[in-house]
Amino acid sequence: MVVEDQIMHNEEFFHKCIALMRPKAKDYASGNVVFVELLRQAWETKVEPPIVLWILLRKHISAIRNFTVLGRTESESIDSRLMDVANMMSLLYMWNKFPENIYVDATDYILEHESCERPNAEESCLAFPEEERCDRCEFLKWLVTQQKNLDSKAESSLLTQRQLDFSPGLSET
Q1: How far apart are the C-alpha atoms of 158 and 152, rounded to whole Å?
Q2: Fewest CB within a 10 Å sphere: which of 15, 19, 74, 173?
Q3: Is the Cα dihedral 132, 137, 143, 145 positive or negative?
Q4: How many CB atoms lie within 10 A of CB 112?
Q5: Contact 43, 35 (CB under 8 A)
Q6: Do 53 and 102 form a contact (C-beta atoms < 8 A)?
Q7: pLDDT tens across 73-132, in order?
């Protein structure tokens, strides 16, 4: 196989990945917002969102391992599993590239589409002590905290970079 053949087959594979993902994408999204349920899983299980992605990815990798080592598949074709892994890698790419946007979109979705679960609540139960809050409001609080943590990490990284950029002994003239 020559490089041109490889590129042609890669393009075919990635087109098939998109074709496989397209009908599933809305099934896994909440109101067209991609990461809401993944973030809810992270909150419920008290693990970081990339770990949830890894767990989902690992399921497919296990099936691929069974195929390569044992020569068998159980429920889906190896091609389907490989495409699922590629699509999961794309989600991980988006997570690494756009975490702030993902938290904002999920927060906006929850605020717009889910109501506080407290009966007769005139306002969100976020004003109440933690033990009296509903799951929706606790999830919202978690989303906001995660977003603030990202902002803090970004500020800390910027401060560290400024400290590293300082070179003692050199004066500006």
Answers
A1: 10
A2: 173
A3: negative
A4: 9
A5: no
A6: no
A7: 888 889 999 999 999 999 999 999 999 999 999 999 999 999 888 776 666 787 777 777
Which amino acid would we find at residue 41?
Q
Q: Find out whether 83 and 89 touch, Cβ atoms under 8 Å.
A: no
Whether the predicted model's global pTM rises above the 0.90 cut: no
Tens digit of each residue's pLDDT (9 = 90 or more) over 131-156: 778 899 999 999 999 999 987 766 55
8 Å CB contact between 107 and 140 = yes
